[in-house]
Amino acid sequence: MTATTLVAGALIVVGVVFLLTSALGVLRLPTFYSRAHAVGKSETVGAIFVIAGLAVENGLATGTPELVLILAFALLANPVAVHAMARAEHQLGEEGAGTEADAPTDATVDDASAATAADDASAATAADDADLDAEGRS
């Protein structure tokens, strides 16, 4: 195993770790904006490390200039694309609309259901009392 292969392997492994962290961030983070931040940073760095590792492994062969161009494109395009998505989300309506952070929690839903059920029960009791009063007077 040559030093070039070891360096290339290390770069690819570091890139894969960043890409896995990016995927984990998309799955675990609660809001669109935090997910976009995770993808915008770690996915870009991960792709750069993987492509750099491939370029190092390839050496001065024919495909290396293309890998360098792909690396430059990823460096420029990934953050711009994430920014465009975040801006579009922001312009679609209220800030943070449609995020899980704005969704009611289970406790809120249970409290609201209990309050609605209590209101329905007290309204039914009041209606029954009114019916009894009307019958009693007749």
Overview in brief:
This protein is mostly helical and 138 residues long. The chain has helices at residues 3-28, 32-58, 64-91, 106-137. The chain is elongated and about 100 Å long.
Give an overview in words.
The chain has 138 residues and is mostly helical. It folds into two domains: 3-103; 105-138. 82% of the residues lie in helices and 0% in strands. It contains four helices and no strands. It has helices spanning 3-28, 32-58, 64-91, 106-137. Helix 1 runs antiparallel to helix 2 (32-58) and helix 2 (32-58) runs antiparallel to helix 3 (64-91). The longest helix is centred in the last third of the chain and has 32 residues, at 106-137. The protein is elongated, with a radius of gyration of 29 Å. The N and C termini lie far apart (103 Å). The mean pLDDT is 78.
Characteristics of this structure?
82% helix; 4 helices; 2 domains; 138 residues
> Helices and strands: which structural class?
mainly alpha
Domain module count:
2
Through-space gap between termini = 103 Å
Strand content: under 5%
Count of strand segments: 0
The helix/strand series, from N terminus to C terminus, equals: HHHH
Query: Mind describing the biggest β-sheet?
Result: none
Mean pLDDT, as a whole number? Answer: 78
Low-confidence stretches: none
Cα gyration radius (Å): 29 Å
Any idea what the shape is?
Answer: elongated
Q: Please count the helical segments.
A: 4
Estimated helix fraction: over 70%
